[in-house]
Amino acid sequence: MTIREVTELLETAGHPSPGTSRACPMCSGSMSQISIPDVKDYVTGETFQVFRCAVCGLGYTWPQPSELNRYYTPTYRRYSPFAWVLLSAFYHLRVKRWTRLLGKGSALEIGCGDGRMLQALRHQGWEVVGVERTAAAARVAVSVNRLPVFAGGLQAINPRAKFDLVLLFHSLEHVPDPLSVLTQCAQLLKPGGKLIVAVPNFQSWQARVFGGSWFHLDVPRHLTHFSPQSLRSTLKTTSLRLDSIRYTSWEHDPYGWVQSTLNRMGFRQNLLTKWLMGVDRASIGTPVGLTMLLMTLVLVVPSLAVAVGSWLARAGAVMELLATKEE
After folding, report:
1. Could you give the residue ranges of the DSSP H alpha helices within 103-248?
2. What is the CATH number of domain 81-201+233-250+318-325?
């Protein structure tokens, strides 16, 4: 059963009650538990809920919109030049680590955005190609960064193509049927090829502390919410063998503590992020905006310290999974 099929059942039956059991699409466990009620989307102001599997810990957003374009701002993931300099530096460091581990070859990134990760891979000698859900989403990667990026998702890739690496860097949580996507990714890998998946950790310290204020929850753009257990459960149904899960993310984890704390303090939801994406910048010059910027500076050091502690405890806000296509 796919997430979409589950959603259709929920729409006909109403909200699952605590006594109602529904099968998790990953492990067939019970999905009746409401984990986080009344989560507001910072783009539209609409309210959603997050349900959770009692067995593997998979979370899913309800209701799941049939059309997602209006939940993505035109500047989604397009940050200020300063922020992108920092992100690009971290991406290059991450790709260098992958290259030391994997060598070089051909790479496909699914949900590549403006192509910053593909740029870093190409800089390290990889042959790269990317896919995005719409032509508008792929435009910057193609016209500005001169990358071979196709619109239409995995359907745009020739199924006979085979890659040494398939990358889902903060994109698997955006699809309604992640199991199907992972199965297709396995089919696109050469025998012995590698899959890398980076997703928010629904069992992280951040998720537990902040609940509906957690920055990386990001409903309804994030349709599914993964725990380490649900990732392992998902891979068991594919031809992929789990090699490792890492919990260190310098570029996403400390920032998540800062933005989530600001959300919890009562500042407008994700205001700092909207400012970095060029949205609502006029509010930064107001007393509230200046106070938020001051609090951001205050929070940087403690957020970094707590993030490092969560990495040591294997409870970081972001998980990076490495898997191998069986020979």
Report:
1. 116-123, 135-139, 178-188, 205-210, 228-235
2. 3.40.50.150
Region of 319 on the Ramachandran plot (φ > 0 left; ψ -120 to 50 alpha; else beta): beta
Low-confidence ranges of the chain (pLDDT < 50): 1-21
For the chain, the structural domain boundaries read 81-201+233-250+318-325, 254-309
Q: Nearest Cα to 30, choosing from 55, 3, 62?
A: 55
Could you identify the residue written with the tokens 């001169």?
Answer: 146
Burial profile 2-22: b = 16 or more Cβ within 10 angstroms, e = fewer: ebeebbeebeeeeebeeeeeb
Selection from 182, 165, 86, 186 nearest residue 121 by Cα? 165
* Inter-axis angle of helices 253-265 and 287-312, nearest 10: 130
At 26 the pLDDT is 72
Q: Identify residue 1 by its one-letter amino acid code.
A: M
